[in-house]
Amino acid sequence: MLQNKFLFNQSSVSLEIIGLPDYSNDENKENISIISQWKLMIIDKPVIEGNLDHLKKIMTAFYNYSSALLNDEISLYESDLIDIKPENSYSHILLLKSSKPEVKPLKFRIGNSILADIVNCFDQLSSSNRVKIIYSKNFKSLKNKKYLYSFDTKNISNFLLPPLFSLCSIFIVSSAFIYVYERNNNKDISSLLNIKNELVSIKSIIKLL
């Protein structure tokens, strides 16, 4: 049986959902109500995947962690599947744990922009009419806080303001140098014109003599 596939993208992150519609409820054959597989793909990072229960836990982890960041609370999330903690103001450490004892935990780092992209992809999924997932009341409460826009705004401030300030400083300094250069250059041209005029006058006087 051919399964449906949906892809939710945001800059450096893609969330792929694969599954089937619920035929017992005469559901649209292009929808997904039974998720058989999902993949969270981040550029230059390991692929995160698992079953539906894993997906719900991962989404809950990122929503809780991001909410804590925005509210200036203790931004540390720990569970049996994933731990997320801040490394500094711009990066975060993810620790993914497997239920299989022979599989070692996977640890890697993401920045603020990737964190925002991940939450955005989860927001796209939870708002989609094509993929239906039964969420817990606690998860719905987290999702309905609509803090993604605020997180994006904070992220933009963190990353854009310093470069913009630097560019403005460079522009001001460059403009000052250009002004001084042009002013001196204009003075030099004026001096040359004066010298030329004086030479012409002297030449005329010599001719008269």
Question: What can be said about this structure in brief?
Answer:
The chain is α+β, with helices and mostly antiparallel strands. The chain is built from four helices and eight strands.
Structural summary, described in words:
The structure is a single chain. This protein has helices at 52-70, 112-127, 137-143, 148-208; strands at residues 4-10, 13-20, 34-42, 48-50, 77-78, 82-86, 91-96, 106-111. The strands form 2 sheets. A 4-stranded antiparallel beta sheet has the order 1-2-3-4. It is α+β, with helices and mostly antiparallel strands and 209 residues long. It is built from 4 helices and 8 strands.
Mean pLDDT: 77
For the record, the CATH architecture of the domain at 4-146 stands as Roll
Q: What's the CATH class label of the domain at 4-146?
A: Mainly Beta
Order of helices and strands: EEEEHEEEEHHH
Number of strands: 8
Number of helices: 4
CATH superfamily of the domain at 4-146: Transcriptional Coactivator Pc4, Chain A
Structural class: alpha+beta
**Biggest sheet: strands side by side, in what order?**
1-2-3-4
Radius of gyration in whole Å, from Cα?
31 Å
CATH fold name of the domain at 4-146, please?
Answer: Transcriptional Co-activator pc4, Chain A
Query: Strand count, sense and closure of the main sheet?
Result: 4 strands, antiparallel
Give the helix proportion (percent range).
40-55%
Name the beta content range: 15-25%
How far apart, in Å, are the first and last alpha carbons?
111 Å
Low-confidence sequence ranges: 202-209
